[in-house]
Amino acid sequence: MCAKAKSSCDKEVPCTTCIKHGRECSYDRVQPVQGANLTTTERNLQVTAKAIATASRVPFLLSYTAAGAGDPNDFAHALETLKDTDDNAATEQVVPAEQTLPYTLPLLLPFFAAEMYDFELPNGPNHPTEAQPYDVEAHDPRDHVLRHRAGELMTLIASAGRNSTCPPEPTVSAFFTPSNLSLCIESFFRNAYKHIPIVHEPSFEVKTANLQLLLSIFVVGAVWSYPRDTYFMVFDFVEVVEQCIFESENFQGVLKNGTKTEQVSPSDFLSLTQAATILISISFAFPQSEHRRRFRERRFSDLTSVIRSFQIDRIEHGAFSLSLSKAGLPLDWGYYIALETSNRVIYYTYLLDSHMSIFHATLPRLSVLEMKASLPGDETVYEALDGEAYVAISSKVNMRSNMSLVNVVQDLMAINPETSRLSHLSAFPSFLVILALQSMIFTAKAQLVDLANGDSFERALARWKDIWDRAREKRNGKRTGFMVHAEEVWLQAHKFLESDLTTLISRFGTEDMTQARKWLTELDKEHK
């Protein structure tokens, strides 16, 4: 126990407070709950409930709804504590219940509890209005490219600013500098990518990237750039960046005419959906409530419409599965990257939809039956630097299954499932599966479906937990991101199945998360 910090942490992985203040840490490991007479499901539920609700940290789900008001420095400190979190550190960190800031937010990205957060952005030295100098004599070969692309971004912002609120020109010039562009792109891939793994980093090039995708990556990288000025400045650009992406001619063309529109190439279409998804993923953090509401109700609805037409188009062309060689390896590395990336965008949209459904008491826009694309594959394969590395890595990974979310959920709920083919699922698809089960239970309750005899859901939840536990040793914590909190979603799904959700569901369409927070607080108390 850290005497001064009053929180427990691992000597091997000290807490942020101890690191900053040079304190020593001690570590108390959670002991398994004993209970020989409990069923496997009951024992799993009891052990996990005790571990995540009393000894490991303020639960992810409760944290999402419980963030109190504070200044952006606390919010930024929360981002800072998450940057280097790995699987073990996230699981073992102990946070006292009374200490809500700055520890309530690090567990949430990209699901910030902005509904409860009152931002007062500083106007002092951290928020300059004069352009920062850039060394034009620098010899970095990328300098010319960075200057050119930064200029393109400023032109894009200026054109969109005619129809929305845009910061003054000096602020735009100070924000969109070549050095800031370079730093924020690096920040995105170093810090944010593991939470939003829908861009293929090895093939991403600043010189050739779609302008809207580049803008979206720049903005999210800026959110992660604290304590640099870019963090404090980025919130001034929310509305104009929204216009640049969602009101662009290409996005509106796809929205109105589907994927058959002739003005958008397949690669640009994929980049547009990536840009929109990335921006929506941080919309929970936007300071203005009207921005958050517009993103949740209008922009996300537009994105799901585009994703739905995208899936229909792929069904018509049979483009959901890879062509495999006899060795089980995809025949075309470039095609694999495009297909895997589009699958990730589809499923990340489903992930966002599931969270909005639960926390804002709305029925999901996307159903499990629509999720026929192959689930996201292994991260090490997706991050291969080139075709040669790709072949070497993929030869060691099971890539034959090409299972969809529909396939996995049906297997888990079946009486005699083929669970052996589910053992290779990584954190991203595993997180999607437990979200799907939770969303299905929530929807059934909202539609007054009697789940008194919910054996199929019980089986699915128990099997999912067994698969998740068995894969614990194989997971790479550096690639897991917020998905390390999947067990808490599993626990909540169990409580949804067992509890009366009338109070929670009765507030459809509300702007706050009061009922969700109240219900989760009660759940938290039950397991302390």
Automatic annotation (TrEMBL):
InterPro entries, A to Z: VerF-like, XnlR_reg_dom, Zn2-C6_fun-type_DNA-bd_sf, Zn2Cys6_DnaBD
Subcellular locations according to the entry: Nucleus
Keywords, ordered alphabetically: Metal-binding, Nucleus, Repeat, Zinc, Zinc-finger
The keyword Metal-binding appears for this protein: yes
A GO molecular function held by the record: RNA polymerase II cis-regulatory region sequence-specific DNA binding
Gene3D superfamilies, A to Z: Zn(2)-C6 fungal-type DNA-binding domain (4.10.240.10)
Primary localization class, coarse: nucleus
A GO term from the CC aspect: nucleus
Ranges where the Xylanolytic transcriptional activator regulatory domain occurs: 185-394
GO biological process: DNA-templated transcription
Domain Zn(2)-C6 fungal-type: 2-29
Taxonomic superkingdom: Eukaryota
Claim: Repeat is one of the keywords in the record: yes
Protein name (record): Zn(2)-C6 fungal-type domain-containing protein
